[in-house]
Amino acid sequence: MKTDGETRSARKDREIIQAATAAFISKGYDGTSMEEIATKAGASKQTVYKHFTDKETLFGEVVLSTATQVNDIIESVTTLLSEAKFMEGGLQQLARRLIAVLMDEEVLKLRRLIIANADRMPQLGRAWYEKGFERMLASTASCFQKLTSRGLIQTSDPYLAASHLFGMLLWIPMNEAMFTGSNRRSRAELERHADASVEAFLVTYGVKPK
C-alpha cells in the first residue's frame, strides 16, 4: 500500500527492504540471494540492483531501517518519563514497553544476524548500536537528568543510571534468548521481570523518604 507522499521509487525501496528483511532472517546473509529477494519483492533482479547496488548494501539498508524504528520508543521515553507520567508509574510502563519491543522474535533474529556478520561488516553493527540502543540510552539519561533536578529520583550520573536500568532489564532475558535461539518467556513473564527491574532500580535511585 502506498503511504501518503510516498513516491513510486520510495515504495519500491520499502518493498525490497521488507522482502530482504524476511529473506535474511529466514536464511541468513550467506544463504540469501538477490534473486530470491527480487522474487519475494515481486520485482526483477535488475530492479533490485537498480535500487541497491549489491547484497551488502541492501543488508545495510535492512539494518538501518530497523534501527530507526526506535523513534516511537524514544517518544515513549520522553512521554512516560515526564514528571506527571513518572509519578503515575511511567517508569514501569516504559520498562514493560522496552522489553516487549527488544525481545520481539524478529528483532532478536536480526540482532543475531548482525552479530554473526560483525567481523566482516563492523560498520553495520556500529550503526545498529548508535542509531538504536545508544539513542534510547541517551534519551532515557536526558529524562533522568530532568527527574533528578525535580527531586523525583537521585543520580549524579544519569547516563550510568540509564545503563543500570537497561542492564537489569535486558541482561538475563536477552542473553537467554540469544544463546538458546528464541525467546522462551511469555509476555506475562517479561512484564514481571520488567517490574522487578524497576523495583530494584528505585531501591538505588529512588528518593528516600525523610
From TrEMBL:
One Pfam family from the record: TetR_N
Keyword Coiled coil appears in the UniProt entry: no
Gene3D superfamilies named in the record: Tetracycline Repressor, domain 2
Superkingdom, taxonomy of origin: Bacteria
Presence of keyword Transcription: yes
InterPro entries: Homeodomain-like_sf, HTH-type_TetR-like_transc_reg, HTH_TetR, Tet_transcr_reg_TetR-rel_C_sf, TetR_C_Proteobacteria
Residue spans binding DNA: 33-52
Keywords annotated in UniProt: DNA-binding, Transcription, Transcription regulation
Domain (HTH tetR-type) ranges: 10-70
Alphabetized PANTHER family for the sequence: HTH-TYPE TRANSCRIPTIONAL REGULATOR BETI, HTH-TYPE TRANSCRIPTIONAL REGULATOR RUTR
Protein name (database record): TetR/AcrR family transcriptional regulator
Source species of the chain: Mesorhizobium huakuii
Lineage: Bacteria, Pseudomonadati, Pseudomonadota, Alphaproteobacteria, Hyphomicrobiales
